[in-house]
């Protein structure tokens, strides 16, 4: 979906519609926030990236071991549910390996919540095209940002995309699991609740 189409769907989010009805002057700021969050996702770039990994990283390692529960048909579940992958975040290889594995095994591209610190030239543009969308580390006092981000998740769910986020919020430096942060989880639940006749959410730990 092109950015204009994505923005148009973001702007249909009921809670954001209500906000802009009372404060129409904030529409320009919403568009600016959307541009900050959006990653210009490109399935073509995902395919190219998979080929690059095949030719480089895949030859440096023994492989990626992806175990799926017996009898689970991922594509079938994707038709019945809004799927959210929830891996642990121990290294930058996490999202690369999982994105690569899901694409190679199920031909499914993943939309990954990434820290805004990763949106730096030239890597940010590449990450965005591979599926990343970008979130600020803190925005508790910025209600408009929170609503716009919820609206972006609403757009992802409405268009049937598989979402991935890390409960820890950031990457662990010790290899141990960090305490979960619930902000993005709560926004996922809220965005999902605004979808009429929505399929159930399915959270899959990885």
Overview of the structural elements:
The chain has helices spanning 3-10, 14-22, 27-37, 43-55, 57-60, 74-80, 93-106, 123-129, 143-158, 183-193, and strands at residues 82-86, 110-115, 132-135, 162-164, 201-205. With 206 residues, it is α/β, with parallel strands linked by helices. It has a five-stranded parallel beta sheet, sandwiched between helices. It is globular, with a radius of gyration of 17 Å.
Morphology call: globular
Order of helices and strands: HHHHHHEHEHEHEHE
Strand order of the largest sheet: 3-2-4-1-5
Q: Please state the structural category.
A: alpha/beta
Number of helices: 10
Major sheet details:
5 strands, parallel
Strand content: 5-15%
Contiguous uncertain segments of 5+ residues: none
Question: Roughly how much helix do the residues carry, as a percent range?
Answer: 40-55%
- Report the radius of gyration as a whole number of Å: 17 Å
Number of strands: 5
Mean pLDDT: 88
Cα distance spanning the termini = 27 Å
Quick recap:
This protein is of the alpha/beta class. The chain has helices at residues 3-10, 14-22, 27-37, 43-55, 57-60, 74-80, 93-106, 123-129, 143-158, 183-193, and strands at residues 82-86, 110-115, 132-135, 162-164, 201-205.
List strands and helices in order, with pairings:
Layout: H1 3-10, H2 14-22, H3 27-37, H4 43-55, H5 57-60, H6 74-80, E1 82-86, H7 93-106, E2 110-115, H8 123-129, E3 132-135, H9 143-158, E4 162-164, H10 183-193, E5 201-205
Parallel strand pairs: 1-4, 1-5, 2-3, 2-4
Notable traits:
alpha/beta; five-stranded parallel beta sheet; 5 strands
């Amino acid at each position: 979906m092109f950015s204009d189409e994505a923005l148009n769907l973001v702007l249909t989010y009921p809670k954001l519609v209500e906000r802009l009805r009372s404060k129409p002057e904030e529409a320009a700021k919403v568009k600016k926030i959307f541009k900050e969050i959006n990653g210009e996702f490109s399935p073509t770039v995902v395919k190219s990236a998979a080929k690059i990994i095949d030719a480089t990283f895949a030859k440096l390692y023994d492989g990626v071991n992806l175990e799926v529960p017996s009898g689970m048909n991922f594509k079938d579940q994707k038709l019945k549910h809004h799927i959210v992958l929830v891996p642990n975040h121990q290294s930058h290889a996490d999202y690369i390996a999982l994105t690569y594995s899901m694409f190679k095994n199920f031909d499914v591209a993943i939309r990954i919540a990434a820290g805004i610190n990763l949106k730096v030239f030239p890597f940010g543009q590449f990450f965005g095209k591979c599926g990343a969308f970008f979130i600020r580390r803190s925005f508790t006092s910025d209600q408009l940002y929170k609503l716009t981000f919820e609206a972006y998740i609403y757009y992802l769910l409405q268009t049937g995309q598989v979402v991935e986020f890390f409960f820890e919020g950031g990457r662990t430096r010790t290899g141990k699991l960090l305490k979960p942060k619930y902000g993005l989880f709560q926004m996922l639940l809220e965005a999902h609740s605004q979808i009429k006749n929505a399929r159930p959410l399915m959270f899959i730990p990885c």
